[in-house]
Automatic annotation (TrEMBL):
CDD domains: HisRS-like_core, HisRS_anticodon
Lineage: Bacteria, Bacillati, Actinomycetota, Actinomycetes, Kitasatosporales
Name under which the protein is recorded: Histidine--tRNA ligase
Quaternary structure note: Homodimer.
UniProt subcellular location: Cytoplasm
Keyword list, A-Z: Aminoacyl-tRNA synthetase, ATP-binding, Cytoplasm, Ligase, Nucleotide-binding, Protein biosynthesis
Length: 425
């Protein structure tokens, strides 16, 4: 223990659990790469104004949860609370949308920051993998993204998750619905803050988790009953494409999500083993966002999946990922001369692509073999002066216990052959 500990609401990723995080990031990004999404990385901080305009002035993220700072040069910056606004900003800045190949498909992976009340599954520093498809309005694109997220969860072995789906309408039908909803909400018995929300962003009142509010929402007008023909047909096509792909979903007319920029398709993946922080990922279409941050009209769709909560979901389902072994070979030198010879061998094995570790610190045979076993290595290479004088080393299979002498100059090939014959898990 040092004088310091990780800041409130954060935690450190350390082995062996950290390898599960890497595997989750990999599992989420693999289907994206296969579908033509290119990797993008943006700064960890942006102008506060980007999020204020992009995410929405009235959202909790902007009003309560942003880590903001003023630089010595006077710039107002915020640690990024989400990825979409930054990715769109970067794509517009690089003119990716003008290269003639729409949609621009991008994926990202990184850390995000929200000053939230910490609890299990809700942290102040968390990790997301996200995907955005910019510049195209096509129900197949919405369906593609949802299918890719679904396939990513499935590839991890997850089963107990559900997909909630809704349409928030567009600039034609949403304002009409908004007015109808406001009229309904104004007649309710709501606290001061919620009343304010009714005026600024009434749809988000539907998302209020408090029972006292939910009770009063019975009979509230629903977006699905106000969708214009174009939105209705668009949504129907998304639903059909998902069904054809074997992706089950539940229609959730109250799903509005916490960010202001969504239009038409919105969705959320929830996991039933996570308690109150059950959303493992979510996203939707955001046709107006580009204009909100000063760009051209660029209808787009995207999602972000939470890595931390996906790891918790794996735990909740008791899933142990089959992670590749960290070490294939563990070298154990007996004596000073062997130390030098085996160290060279270790370097050679690594250069040949074999994951190899070494008994450092002049350990005795017994301790060194303990380390070899603990490393999870498939083979131990043991050598003393006598072996080296004969130009050999002892190759011990740590699974079967068999041991044989192998010529020093044949070791790399022998190890590679035997590893590929029976790859360890
Ligand atoms: P959002 O940008 O709020 O739609 O979040 C997308 C996903 O990121 C959620 O479904 C969560 O899995 C994850 N996430 C959001 N906020 C947090 C947080 N404070 N701690 C951990 N994960 C989070």
């Amino acid at each position: 223990m040092s004088t310091f500990s990780a800041p409130k609401g954060t935690y450190d990723l350390i082995p062996p659990d950290s390898s599960v995080f890497l595997a989750v990031r990999e599992a989420i990004s693999t289907p994206l790469k296969r579908a033509g999404y290119g990797y993008i990385e943006t700064p960890g901080f942006e102008a506060v104004e980007l999020f204020a305009r992009g995410v929405g002035e009235s959202t909790d993220i902007v009003t309560k949860e942003m880590y903001t700072l003023t630089t010595k040069g006077g710039d107002e910056l915020a640690l990024r609370p989400e990825g979409t606004a930054s990715v769109l900003r970067a794509a517009l800045e690089a003119n990716l949308h003008k290269l003639g190949n729409l949609p621009v498909k991008l994926w990202y992976s990184g850390s995000y920051y929200r000053y939230e009340r910490p609890q299990k599954g809700r942290y102040r520093h968390f990790s997301q993998v996200g995907a955005e498809a910019l510049g195209t309005e096509d129900p197949a694109l919405d369906a593609e993204l949802i299918i890719l997220a679904f396939d990513a969860y499935r590839s991890l072995g997850l089963r107990n998750f559900r997909l909630l789906l809704n349409s928030l309408g567009d600039k034609e039908c949403r304002p009409v619905y908004r007015a109808a909803l406001q009229e309904f909400l104004r007649a309710l018995d709501l606290d001061e803050e919620t009343r304010r929300r009714v005026e600024i962003n009434p749809l988000r009142v539907l998302d209020d988790k408090r029972e006292a509010v939910q009770k009063q929402l019975v009979g509230a007008p629903m977006m699905r009953d106000h969708l214009c023909e174009a939105c209705k047909s668009y949504h129907e096509q998304v639903r059909e494409l998902l069904t054809a792909a074997g992706v089950a979903f539940e229609d959730d007319p109250k799903l509005v999500r916490g960010l202001d920029y969504y239009t038409r398709t919105t969705f959320e993946f929830v996991h039933d083993g996570l308690g109150s922080q059950s959303a493992v990922g979510g996203g939707g279409r955001y046709d107006g966002l580009s204009e909100m941050i000063g760009g051209p009209a660029l209808p787009s769709v995207g999602w972000a999946l939470g890595v931390d909560r996906t790891v918790l979901a794996l735990k909740a389902e008791g899933i142990e990922l089959e992670l590749p072994a960290h070490t294939d070979v563990f070298a154990v030198p007996l004596g000073e001369e062997a130390r030098r010879a085996l160290f060279s061998l270790v370097t050679e094995l690594r250069r040949q692509g074999v994951a190899t570790d070494f008994a450092y610190g002049g350990k005795g045979l017994k301790n060194a073999m303990k380390s070899a076993n603990r490393s999870g290595a498939r083979f131990a290479v043991v050598a003393g002066e006598r072996d080296l004088a004969e130009g050999t080393v002892q190759l011990k299979d740590l699974e079967s216990g068999e041991q044989s002498a192998v010529a020093l100059d044949a070791l790399v090939d022998t190890v590679r052959e035997r590893l590929s014959d029976s790859p360890s898990t």
